[in-house]
């Protein structure tokens, strides 16, 4: 074996070690989170409200807030992102206007989420006077979510064969009808995967919410589902600390005695939720595709 | 019958012209010019299409035959610039005032690769009607049965109308696409190499179907398969380099072509 | 004549045509909305951030070179104590160190995934990187707090909070970003480059090092810049482990702060319109400008590397 072959062998072994190291990091992260966290997760923990000064608090309200904000943010951002993606993929011509639009979406997607949060604070909390609220949080998350969701949907749309568009146009349908009723359904598996992946990202986001949805989670009356009552879970104008914000908050300034247990339990729940989002994104996308192409 | 001969023994071009008094012309192009950007992709292509006939458009790839076909129902909008007149029953449809969607409804198109939508077979056929506001189940059922029968695929799919059309075989899918085009009641059917993705048996069945459809529709078909053109069509246009070189009865184009270039092409000495 | 009747039918603007117009405008308006948001963010943050200098008369020089951050008070030399240098240095230090640490690991992993064991790469490492990207930053912060900080404390002494802990946390956070983008650019290198190199008698490693990596350099640079942008803008994970002392870092294990950490910690405790508040917006403006700068960098690399395709 000559020198360069030996060198090659050593280098490749090195690369294998590096790759193994990265896998180890993830294994450690996931292992650490679940091993330290899951023992603290119980039905009581998941459903009861947090306690500021005593042990035994749960994350029920935060968990609900996280899901509620996620659903609202998705409901607002999905139509906007879908339409924007439609324009970019189907209508936009290759000119300065399009490249300006694309650049601004890139800028938005690379903005630090704390800056997006501060903008949300300035606009929704202060200017529109929504205060620290679900509404401010959902709108801010929408801004945070729009660029990535738009890009995901755009990718799914561009994967649809042009034959489908031609087919629609050839029947005398308008381009827009063709897109909405033929291209979008055909790209549904991709769009669904994209939405779920973005959901995971939104679910774990905290920096954009600290100054918009707020850092407090007042107790909710789960018997009252009238959105106009301030202690109703659905009320859009109540402050709503989410699970991710909660983890940050108690680690920065929490004083309850079981701080470590609560935060590791909450972190485990958060990561578990993200894992479920990730896995279901693959699974559901594939299932939808199978259903569309196979015998009903 | 007039022709555009030139004065040597074989003409450079030969375009057959019908006498409009005697024949019913469904479509006709006049002074057509198609440009991609600044590149001229088609000119010298004044062709008349007789009602209830099959006209084949043949020529080497890049000759412009598909571009020509797609101009006929304005599928080139936004892709290429089309100048000149395209007359559909005497009305020039190549003008801005014309509603392109209504044009495409009357002049339907079937594509090279079968392109069923990600919907059920039933919805594939009825979709365009539903979008036009027809929701009466009885009417739609009738259309589905009638068009699938016309496309000669009814027997194969009648028990699985709710099945996804994406699960059909190529030949069946192409027939459903034809039924889909027929559902909006066009008079003209444009087909862009509809058999190129099909196996020989499906191709044969498709040709039989088209012969049947000729009774009710004017059919214009692009094909790269000369045997197919010879078997199937009544008239044939030979395109080369963005120009219609010869247009005549199919039998004449294939047995006694007037233009040397056509002769070379149909006898396989081309290129 | 039937033609006229037909002409009339064909010229009538159909419902479909109106629907098309509507849809076109609707989708355009969604895009314009996004553009307006981006513009709004830039204008809002800029106008707030600049008022420190325009309304509160803080000198720009003082802001970028001063080392004492205590807005509302004066420095011993009589200046406004709005010196952002400690945070700027902190942000750059954690970003550069994390990128320097992550880049070799990321490239190594990406090379393994594309060149050495594509099968295992797709089966194990691909999902691993996707999961790492998906883990929320507060979770990274939490692990940083409960694992990295104690580790740094016991190994290097001090409180454990500081630049070094921030670097470790950011290293793990940006690693998957750089890996997945590097993988994309390595995959973009045509197969025949490799075949030609191997056919010339080069070893696998020589091929990777001299041919593949060289051809993918613009893409790898882009990946690193993206990683840096993420590190620079990351707020909570860093804030949880860096110690949050607005002081010039004198070593890697002394408590320090970054632009983002001061912002998140401070914004809630100031009153809108006060100097304390304006000064924080100036930090946000620096963040925004840096983010734009990273974007520009990516574009420039893209343009330079474009000929390779």
Automatic annotation (TrEMBL), chain A:
KW Cell membrane (keyword) present: yes
Main location: membrane
Gene3D superfamilies from the UniProt entry: MetI-like
Parts of the chain that traverse the membrane: 12-35, 67-88, 108-126, 132-149, 179-203, 266-284
Xref: Pfam families: BPD_transp_1
Record's bilayer topology term: Multi-pass membrane protein
A GO CC annotation given for this chain: plasma membrane
Keywords: Cell membrane, Membrane, Transmembrane, Transmembrane helix, Transport
GO biological process, one term: phosphate ion transmembrane transport
Keyword Amino-acid biosynthesis: no
Compartment annotation: Cell membrane
Molecular function as annotated in GO: phosphate transmembrane transporter activity
Residue ranges of every copy of the ABC transmembrane type-1 domain listed in the record: 63-281
Family the entry assigns: Belongs to the binding-protein-dependent transport system permease family. CysTW subfamily.
Protein's recorded name: Phosphate transport system permease protein PstA
Organism: Lentilactobacillus parabuchneri
UniProtKB/TrEMBL annotation, chain B:
Chain segments annotated as transmembrane: none
Membrane among keywords: yes
Pfam family, one: ABC_tran
Any single biological process term in GO: phosphate ion transmembrane transport
Gene3D superfamilies registered for this protein in UniProt: P-loop containing nucleotide triphosphate hydrolases
Enzyme Commission designation: 3.6.3.27
Start and end residues of each ABC transporter domain: 27-266
Gene Ontology MF terms in the entry: ATP binding; ATP hydrolysis activity; phosphate transmembrane transporter activity
GO CC term, one of those recorded: membrane
Keywords: ATP-binding, Cell membrane, Hydrolase, Membrane, Nucleotide-binding, Phosphate transport, Translocase, Transport
InterPro entries: AAA+_ATPase, ABC_transporter-like_ATP-bd, ABC_transporter-like_CS, P-loop_NTPase, PstB-like
PANTHER family: ABC TRANSPORTER I FAMILY MEMBER 17 (PTHR43423), PHOSPHATE IMPORT ATP-BINDING PROTEIN PSTB 2 (PTHR43423:SF10)
Protein name: Phosphate import ATP-binding protein PstB 3
Organism per entry: Lentilactobacillus parabuchneri
Upper taxonomic lineage: Bacteria, Bacillati, Bacillota, Bacilli, Lactobacillales
UniProtKB/TrEMBL annotation, chain C:
Subcellular location: Cell membrane
Keyword vocabulary terms for this entry: Cell membrane, Membrane, Phosphate transport, Transmembrane, Transmembrane helix, Transport
Molecular function via GO: phosphate transmembrane transporter activity
Record domain ABC transmembrane type-1: where: 88-298
Membrane-spanning ranges: 21-46, 84-107, 128-149, 161-183, 211-232, 279-301
Main location: membrane
Top-level lineage group: Bacteria
Pfam families in UniProt: BPD_transp_1
GO terms under cellular component: plasma membrane
One of the protein's GO biological processes: phosphate ion transport
Topology versus the membrane: Multi-pass membrane protein
SUPFAM superfamilies with a match to the protein in the record: MetI-like
Protein family per UniProt: Belongs to the binding-protein-dependent transport system permease family. CysTW subfamily.
NCBIfam families per the UniProt record, alphabetical: phosphate_pstC
Function: Part of the binding-protein-dependent transport system for phosphate; probably responsible for the translocation of the substrate across the membrane.
Record-given protein name: Phosphate transport system permease protein
Lineage start: Bacteria, Bacillati, Bacillota, Bacilli, Lactobacillales
